[in-house]
Amino acid sequence: MEKSSDRPLSLQVADKIRVLIRKNLLVSGTRLNEQKLCDQLGVSRTPLREAFRMLSAEGLVNILPNKGVCVTVLPLDEVFHMFEAMGIMEGNCAHLACDRLSDADLEELNKLHGQLEKHYKNGDQEGYIDCNHEYHTFVQEKAGNPVLSKMVSSLRGVILLYRYRQIYHPGRFSQSMEEHRRLIEAFRARDGNRVERLMRQHLQKQGQAFVSYYAELGYP
Q1: Which residue of 74, 91, 92, 96 sits 20 to 30 Å from the alpha carbon of 35, by its own alpha carbon?
Q2: Phi, psi for 15 (deg, rounded to 5)
Q3: In sequence order, which residues have a C-beta less than 8 Å from that of residue 28 and are 6 or more positions away?
């Protein structure tokens, strides 16, 4: 792995491991082999262990004393309830943002939507995931409510892994794009009630796709 001139190696390693986890190449509950990951990523144990600490703080891995590191696993019903809660909060953020977006803000949201369309057209799920994160974060910021934003950010840190994994469920990529098309139409119409409803539904469908994906893999 080549070291970027402006980002510490440990951050790059953490990014790589996040991708492996959300693509289910590192399965929930699996104990991680340090040497194997070092060889795979082309790094030493020091940046790898620093990356583990970052990922542990995000709730993506568990560092077990004298037992090593394993990928976090949560019951499916608990994950779905997190999606439900996130839907309520992000729906409120979206409604507030819709009421408060300036013309310049709406133009920026349109640009982000255009990038989502481009990634979808190219079949680029990773690019779509990154842009989707930027889109939702932008809406959250434009809600202009720091208390609500703090609550959303806290839950997002836990749910992020599961939110990304659901995109790999068959048909979900296309569904997600269609949901975003309806969202941007509602934002353009400045229809706060519709924006809130669509955002809640968007998160609920993400949760349903995640649960379906893992149920098919045999998770409880």
Answers
A1: 74
A2: -60, -45
A3: 71, 72, 73, 74, 219
Residue 140 to residues 39, 134, 136: CA-CA distances in angstroms? 39, 10, 6
What string of DSSP letters covers 148-198?
HHHHHHHHHHHHHHHHHHGGGSTTHHHHHHHHHHHHHHHHHTT-HHHHHHH
pLDDT tens readout for residues 122-178: 999 989 988 999 999 999 999 999 999 999 988 887 777 677 777 878 899 999 999
* Cα angle: 169, vertex 171, 176; to 5 degrees: 90
Q: How many C-beta atoms lie closer than 10 Å to residue 176's C-beta?
A: 23
What are 86-128's pLDDT values in tens digits? 999 999 999 999 999 999 999 999 999 999 999 999 999 989 9
Q: By the 8 A CB rule, do 180 and 116 touch? A: yes
Structure tokens at 106: 């709406």
Ordered alpha helix ranges (H), the chain: 9-22, 34-41, 45-57, 76-100, 103-121, 125-142, 146-165, 172-188, 192-216
